[in-house]
Design a protein that fits this description.
Elements lengths: L5 E4 L3 H12 L4 E5 L10 E4 L2 E4 L8 H10 L10 E3 L2 E7 L2 E6 L2 H12 L1 H26 L6 H8 L4 H4 L8 H5 L6 H8 L18 H7 L3 E3 L4 H13 L3 E4 L3 E7 L2 E7 L4 E3 L2 E4 L3 H5 L22 E12 L6 E4 L4 H9 L9 E5 L13 E9 L10 H16 L4 E4 L4 E3 L1 H7 L17 H4 L10 E3 L10 H21 L6 E2 L5 E2 L9
Parallel strand pairs: 1-2, 1-13, 2-9, 6-15, 13-20
Antiparallel strand pairs: 3-4, 5-8, 6-7, 10-11, 11-12, 14-17, 14-18, 14-19, 15-16, 16-17, 21-22
Length: about 525
């Protein structure tokens, strides 16, 4: 790579987006990825020859990707076929069932039928508040660089000051939900949005109710599965000149004269660059996974601050007894006990279960024969400890099947079913313990503690769902965009020196703007 190039480590969504945007601005970009394919956590697992989504399954904030593709001279619709979902999700508590819809009036009516008129009014008030929080933070926080409470207030300005004073950062989500819903089942339903960032509704700030607004604004179904999104962003990068090298793990990030200077691959090959974007968990940098020279670039993440991990079954299965939709949640009878177990580092005895029926659309019509399923049970991020043994895995599977059977769902999982545990996730994503969302969003300051785009080492940047602005596919994409923007701004303002001796031994620098390529 010629001098002035950029190396991106990791082909997750943050890395893919950052690489594509930098290349579109004229940078010479090489992306190196340890795996054989792009996507990172946005991955597919092959089961009986069929690709089953093994990572995120819900696509929201489509506009973020429309903007990214447009900035790179492309259009999202040229790469993916997708359609909006009319039904957001189906929720079950034993024999009781409630669907939420893209049409808020339909959701309000369904809640009224399910729990009464007072709860429908509570939903209307909750939806209004979730929208207010999202609109208050969308520009200043989600689309802005890493900040602190004082700078956030400055960004929000005088007009945003009333919202700034009422961001609900000091109240837990669970407690706030009690002000809208008397029915504990509805508090469970909307409290579950905390798990979208790998957090507990009992410990995260009520600010996270904004996630409900994000989902209500639109869920899109991607033909072929969510992993196709990673392939689409990769194609966008290729079109703009990004070089992709798979099966190329990085041994070390190189530092020269106090700046990032490229990478050394596990093979011993050196790739020289003037900037490096690391699309790995920042905890891996701090743990020394990329060499001793960059350990100080990020802060370590104590295990107590980790987000949730998961047990994920990717399967082909015969299904009967419950009318599955595309997205389905089967709630436990005791939500506080479930999250208390997770906080104590244990799996819940009676867990809530998420089932994505990937061959079903809004109508819920089942395919002929076995169908593709992704099944998720939350788990503590203890993947750097002892792995689950065969007896423990059997118990987990039995608890999962018991949980869905209370709603009448019968699953006959094929022998080819693949189970991914926290230990497996820790192997796939080193130095995380299997945490899937970076640090948990617990406490009012958690969002301000996330790693920003810049690190303590000039020329080294971070992107991905473990960095600012947060976890999830759209947030990871925004992190890639923020990292690219920071890199370009820093490069444009860098002074290169042609030192000229002055009388008295004083030297001056002849400044020039470094081209963004």
């Amino acid at each position: 790579m010629p001098d002035g190039g950029v190396v991106v480590i990791g082909g997750g969504i943050g890395g893919l987006v950052g690489a594509a945007l930098l290349a579109a601005r004229g940078c010479d970009v090489t992306l190196v990825e340890a795996a054989a394919h792009p996507g990172g956590k946005l991955r597919a697992v092959t089961v009986d020859g069929a690709a089953v989504d093994g990572g995120p399954t819900v696509f929201t904030m489509r506009g973020v990707f429309d903007d990214i593709f447009a900035a790179c001279g492309g259009a999202l619709d040229d790469h993916l076929t997708m359609r909006p979902a009319a039904t957001l999700a189906r929720h079950a508590w034993g024999g009781a069932r409630l669907d939420l819809f893209a049409d808020p009036a339909a959701s309000e009516a369904a809640i009224g039928d399910f729990a009464g008129a007072a709860e429908a009014r509570g939903f209307r008030a909750f939806r209004t508040e979730a929208r207010r929080l999202f609109e208050a933070l969308d520009g200043p926080f989600l689309h802005g660089g890493k900040t602190d409470p004082i700078t956030l207030g400055w960004r929000m300005g005088a007009r945003g000051f009333p919202d700034y004073r009422n961001l609900k950062a000091f109240t837990s989500l669970w407690r706030a939900l009690g002000g809208y819903f008397a029915d504990a089942r509805l508090r469970q339903l909307f409290g579950r949005y905390a798990t979208y960032s790998g957090s507990s509704p009992f410990a995260c700030p009520a600010t996270l109710m904004l996630i409900a607004h994000v989902e209500a604004c639109g869920v899109w179904l991607i033909e072929g599965g969510m992993h196709r999104l990673a392939l689409a962003v990769e194609a966008l990068g290729r079109r703009n000149g990004v070089r992709f090298r798979y099966g190329a793990p990085v041994r070390e990030i190189l530092v020269e004269r106090g700046r990032a200077a490229g990478v050394m691959l596990a093979s011993g090959e050196r790739i020289v660059a003037t900037a490096v974007v690391c699309n790995a968990d920042p905890a891996a940098i701090a743990a020394g996974a990329f060499g001793p020279a960059v350990r100080r670039a990020t802060r370590p993440m104590p295990p107590r601050r980790r987000s949730l991990s998961a047990l994920v079954w990717t399967a082909r299965a015969e299904v009967s007894g419950f009318p599955l939709g595309r997205h389905n949640v089967f709630f436990s009878d005791d939500y506080p006990a479930e999250f208390a177990a997770l906080a104590a580092g244990r799996l819940a005895d009676a867990p809530s279960v998420y089932v994505c029926a990937q061959d079903r659309d809004d109508g819920g019509a089942p395919p002929a024969g076995p169908e593709r399923l992704q099944i998720i049970v939350n788990a503590p991020a203890t993947g750097d400890g002892a792995p689950l043994n065969a007896a423990e895995i059997d118990t987990c599977r039995r608890h999962m099947l018991d949980s869905v059977s209370r709603a009448g769902l019968s699953l006959d999982l094929a022998p080819s079913t693949v189970l991914t545990t926290p230990h497996d996730f820790a192997r796939l994503f080193p130095s995380t313990g299997g945490a899937l969302y970076g640090p948990a969003s617990h406490g009012w300051a958690a969002s301000f503690r996330r790693q920003g785009s810049r690190t303590a080492i000039p020329g080294l940047y971070c992107a991905g769902g473990s960095t600012h602005p947060g976890a999830g596919v759209p947030m990871a994409a925004l992190s890639g965009r923020l990292a690219a923007a920071c890199l370009l701004r820093d490069r444009a303002s860098t002074w290169r020196s042609g030192r000229t001796a002055m009388p008295g031994g004083i030297s001056t620098r002849r400044a020039r703007t470094v081209p963004t390529g």
